[in-house]
Amino acid sequence: MIKLSGNLRLTMEAALKSSVSIIPSKEHIYLEGPKSRGYELGFAWRVFWQFLRGFRNLHFIGPCITVFGSARFSEDHPYYGRAREFGKKIAEAGFTTMTGGGLGIMEAANRGAFESGGKSVGCNIQLPFEQKVNAYVQKAVTFEHFFVRKVLLVKYSYAFIIMPGGFGTMDEFFEILTLIQTRTVTGFPVVLFGKEYYRNLLENIEDMAKQGTISKEDMSLVLVTDSVEEAMEHIKHYIRTNYRVKPRQRFWWLFEKR
Hints:
single chain, alpha/beta, Rossmann fold, seven-stranded parallel sheet
């Protein structure tokens, strides 16, 4: 049994107590082992329905560029301004701006697209704190599970812009890198925006390459930059070189939503 010093134990207890008020849990989960088969069937159906609803609502949104980033940056923060600029540039390039639909970086990117007459889409997540759909989203879908949301954020996008963020942003960034590394996603460009913010992370990634756990080629599609113009030119060049955009036709018998 590990014994903690008095000060450390009090600090941990205080942190646990404060975390209850800062980040309340969605619901209590009892550690009783596997659920009943009926419960698991219901869960599988709810997940399937979330996917189906997402596909139905996002089928005609057009080719997207997804912008990831923190929900905690205020409107006066420099990164908010850069994300807003990205939304404008994405709209000018003829793409739909897709985000997680929340505040901060997500709101800024949606706002830039909305103000420029472009399409603005948000894939929101149900949370007991922090997350709500921002006012600049023209089409929003809210999901209960993060893994469903992440699939939709990747499925319709041809490029990914990773702006400064926290755990959620890192989760999405490494998810995309894993898809590229395993050739599950075929060579879509990724922009890591904020050289100073991501400096330590990039050093860790370089150390992974030295240790042999990844290959240097795994980062070949990642552009690290502080320039919105350089990022957009990188994305547009790669898309022009490798893809042709073709609008999707709508068939009335499929009952698909525009």
